[in-house]
Amino acid sequence: MPEGDTVWQAASRLHSALAGKVLTRSDLRVPKYATADLTGRTVLDVTPRGKHLLTRIEGGLTLHSHLRMDGAWKIFANGHRWSGGPAHQIRAILGNHDTTAVGYRLPVLELLRTPDEQRVVGHLGPDLLGPDWDPDQALANLLADPARPLGEALLDQRNLAGIGNVYKSELCFLLGITPWLPVGALPADRAAKLPALAKKLLEANRDRPVRTTTGRRGQDLFTYGRAPRPCLRCGTPIRVADQGDGSRERPTYWCPTCQSGPVPAPGSPPTRRFRRRSPN
After folding, report:
1. Which helix (H) or strand (E) holds 244?
2. What letter does residue 187 receive in the DSSP assignment?
3. Which phi and psi (to 5°) does residue 69 adopt?
4. What is the pLDDT of residues 222-236, one digit of tens each?
5. What's one Pfam family the UniProt record gives for this protein (predicted)?
6. Residue 185 carries which DSSP code?
7. For residue 228, is the peptide bond before it cis, meaning its omega torsion is within 30 degrees of 0?
């Protein structure tokens, strides 16, 4: 699933291509909005909110989309061939005299009144890349459920918006604790660092084509996707196990030497203690 920095980049590309321009083509390929026609309206802006995209359109309308695992918005100069996937995967087309934005495999696409945006994003916690960022509130949200494993709490967008599975693993490594450590057991000094560190990572990567948390060329991440290769710090093989986020199990990476705290027993099934759905 795209994380906050990836969605921020998508919003930036869409804003550059569409904002301030009149739509000459509009095609929403979902049954509920199949007859909606946005042509003749000016796109006002495209704003990211956590992992959500809000395309605001003249006349008090907002096109809300979410990429989830496989969705993507592609931008094409008019006259160029589209290359984001087969035609049957297209869910939205927004075009002007210069460019066309094509939404592929969008699992969430809805047209709503702009004053009603809170209905779809009002549940989100402080946005790591947004103007509403509030580190104290984000930390308070995380600590509100002290028995919950930190990795699950970080993925819950109601606590803070923008962290996905990659940053979950990388943050826990940089804090020196495992993703299975209960939030309430997080040492106070590390808890105090967490919001600023999360924001620093996402801000550092929002304009980069390749995400990195290490600062090392060719070795972009400390743990995510690296099992069973050696830890970049201590050489211990990185491990991987599934961890629930309330909606599905996610592969979770950690170094058994550099990170302290509970871990799944070898061969044990993934924990399913917390079954609250984690809103996106």
Report:
1. strand 239-244
2. -
3. -80, -40
4. 999 999 999 999 999
5. H2TH
6. G
7. yes
Q: Is the pLDDT of residue 147 over 60?
A: yes
Rounded to whole angstroms, how far apart are CA atoms 61 and 111? 7
| Phi, psi of 153, deg, nearest 5 | -65, -35
DSSP per residue over 132-176, as a string?
T--HHHHHHHHHTSTTSBHHHHHH-TTTSBS--HHHHHHHHHHHT
Pull the structure tokens for residue 186: 């997080």
Angle of helix 188-205 versus helix 165-175 axis, rounded to 10: 130
Beta bridge partners of 45: 56
- What's the pLDDT score for residue 245? 53
Q: Name 174's Cβ contacts closer than 8 Å, sequence gap at least 6.
A: 197, 213, 222
Which own/partner contact pairs does 120-125 have at CB distance under 8 Å and 24+ positions apart? Answer: 120/52, 120/64, 121/49, 121/50, 121/52, 121/54, 121/64, 123/157, 123/158, 123/279, 124/49, 124/50, 124/52, 124/157, 124/158, 124/161, 124/279, 125/157, 125/158, 125/159, 125/160, 125/161
Q: Torsions phi, psi of 141, nearest 5?
A: -60, -45
Catalytic center residues: 2-3, 51, 250
Q: Residue 117's closest CA among 166, 208, 50?
A: 50
Alpha-carbon distance of 172 to 180, in angstroms, equals: 9
